[in-house]
Amino acid sequence: MRTAAVGMHPDPLNSESAPIHRLLMVADSAVASVDDLPTAVRAVIDSATEVYVVTPTLPGRLAWLADDIDRLRHLADQRLDTVLGHIHAISPEARGRTGDEMLLTSFDDAVGDFQPDHIVIGLLTSEHGNWQERGLIEHVKERFGLPVTTYAIDLHGHVPAFDS
To answer: How would you list the strands of the sheet with 22-27, edge to edge?
Structure first.
C-alpha cells in the first residue's frame, strides 16, 4: 500500500500503482482555486474515473457546547460547492455531499457507500487544524487499508510551498 503524509505525495502515475477508478476526497478546507491544488493531487484526481467529495461539518468543542452546528453545516455546504467546482475543472465525473459532524463517521459513511480505491484528504495546516483531526491520517490508513494522499491548506486557501 502506498501512502503519503501531509507535504509528501505518492507518484499517482507510477506503473506499480493500481488504476484509480473511485476516488474519495475528504476536504475540511478548500483551496482558493483549482490551480492551488498540488500537482500530485491534481494527477490523482485526473487519473480517477469517478470522484466523490465529502466535506465534514467539523464542529469544534465550543461549537458543540454553543449548539452552533447549523452554521457549520452551511459552511460545509459552501465548501462542498467550492471543491466540486474545482474537481469539475479537472474531471466531470464528480459528486458529493456534506458529511457528518464526526469526522471518522464521515469517512465510514463515504467508504461504505462509495467503495473507493484511493482517498485524498485536504486538511487545514497543523496550526489551524480542528481538534477532530489529530491522528486522522494514521487512523484512516489503519481503518480502511487504502492508499491515501494528503495535502495541507492554509486559512487563505493556499498550499504551503512544501506541499506543491
So the answer is: 94-98, 50-55, 22-27, 118-124, 148-153
Chain segment 101-128, per-residue pLDDT in tens: 778 888 999 999 999 999 999 988 765 5
Give the helix/strand (H/E) hosting 64.
Answer: helix 61-66
In this prediction the pTM is: 0.80
CA distance 63 to 85: 28
Could you give the C-alpha distances from 112 to 29, 42, 116, 121, 125, in angstroms and in order? 23, 24, 9, 17, 27
Nine-digit cell at 152? 495541507
| 3-class DSSP state of 7 | coil
Phi-psi region of 157 (alpha: psi -120 to 50; beta: other; left: phi over 0): left
